[in-house]
Write a structure and sequence with these properties.
It catalyses: 3-hydroxypyruvate = 2-hydroxy-3-oxopropanoate. This protein is an alpha/beta fold. The radius of gyration is 19 Å and the shape is globular. The chain starts with a strand and ends with a helix. It contains ten helices and eight strands. The protein has one domain: Divalent-metal-dependent TIM barrel enzymes (TIM Barrel, Alpha-Beta Barrel). Strands 5-4-3-2-1-8-7-6 form an eight-stranded parallel β-sheet.
């Protein structure tokens, strides 16, 4: 079994340093070989490039721009009437991803509009999301990149986020999952597959699963639980995982609901090879809170996980 690979989410870790480029250096010094981030768009891109090149750290994931944060936006992928802004944001994300050699972009769904009921706008938001994902899949496939979607829990973190459940999988996106799975060597039934959906086969860079492809264990535990079974079920189409303790979103070994030693063993057992993003709030300094990672690395070496 290969040891798991962890990346530092520098939007959450090393925030003792105000500059993202300095956080890349700090992550490298702490032993991370990769980083991810939410939004880097206020940063000097040349400084980020220099930090990445100097450290050799891989940038594995960035998000599309949130939109107008002051107005309450948190992504635009599923927001009706904002399609042009979504495309502009995707273009900006692509510029940064190209420059940083990043191959994954989280396509943020966005929030249910203020004053609207989720049940009332759900169909329109689903249709908008599907159209935007189709567009993004075509663009990203030409760049050799992958688009990810991720549910964000609506019980604690964001009551209005549209994509809030690991099982919130529109019918058309489920078909996309089957196609992606088939392309990776799976054998799944595709009953009632429409010609239009079949056409996604060549351009489907946006690998979507019911866990959102970017499987954030913190959000999934809050909304659904049943983590080990869901990981096993959807692992073939999960491209990225993120971790934090529940409910306070601190270090994986802090007090809380989750036994990460067991979950890490589960991922090893099933051969997960992607990165695991450390997207949590350190209780103290980032460096002081990395004892869990040192322990994992030591145990992996001792038990012969390699």
């Amino acid at each position: 079994m290969a040891p798991l690979r962890f990346c530092a989410n520098i939007s959450w870790l090393f925030t003792e340093l105000p500059d993202f480029s300095k956080r890349i250096y700090a992550a490298a010094a702490a032993g991370f070989q990769a980083v991810e981030a939410a939004w880097l768009y206020d940063c000097d891109l040349s400084e980020l490039q220099r930090a990445r090149e100097a450290t050799g750290v891989e940038v594995v994931l960035i998000n599309t721009p949130p939109g107008d944060v002051q107005a309450g936006d948190l992504g635009l992928g599923a927001v009706p009437g904002r399609e042009a802004e979504f495309r502009q944001g995707l273009d900006l994300a692509l510029d940064y991803a190209r420059s940083l050699s990043c191959k994954r972009i989280h396509l943020m769904a966005g929030r249910v509009p203020v004053g609207s009921q989720r049940s009332t706008v759900a169909r329109d938001m689903e249709n908008t999301f599907i159209q935007n994902l189709r567009y993004a899949a075509d663009v990203l496939s030409k760049e050799g990149m992958t688009g990810l979607i991720e549910p964000i829990n609506s019980r604690i973190t964001d009551p209005r986020y549209y994509l809030d459940s690991p099982h919130q999988d529109p019918t058309e996106l489920k078909h996309a999952v089957l196609l992606h799975w088939e392309n990776r060597g799976g054998t799944l039934e595709r009953d009632e597959m429409t010609e239009e959906i079949r056409g996604l086969k060549q351009s489907l860079a946006c690998a979507v699963s019911s866990s959102g492809n970017a499987h954030d264990i913190f959000h999934c535990q809050i909304m659904d639980g049943n983590l080990s079974q869901n990981l096993q079920k959807y692992l073939p189409i999960i491209a990225h995982i993120q971790i934090a303790q529940v409910p306070d979103r601190n270090e994986p070994d802090s007090a809380g609901e989750l036994n990460y030693s067991f979950l890490f063993s589960t991922l090893e057992k099933h051969g997960y090879q992607g990165y695991i993003g450390c997207e949590y709030k350190p209780l103290g300094s980032t460096k002081e809170g990395l004892g869990w990672l040192s322990k994992y690395t030591q145990q992996a070496t001792t038990t012969g996980v390699r």
